[in-house]
Amino acid sequence: MSEFTHLDEQGRIKMVDVAAKPATHRRARARAVIVMPAAVMRHFENGDIQSKKGSVFQTAVIAGIMGAKKTGDLIPLCHPLGLDNCDVQIHVNDRQEVVIDCTAAITAKTGIEMEALTGATVAALTIYDMCKAMSHDIVIKDIMLMEKTGGKSDFSRAE
Question: Most exposed: 13, 44, 68, 99, by fewest CB within 10 Å?
Answer without folding.
Answer: 13
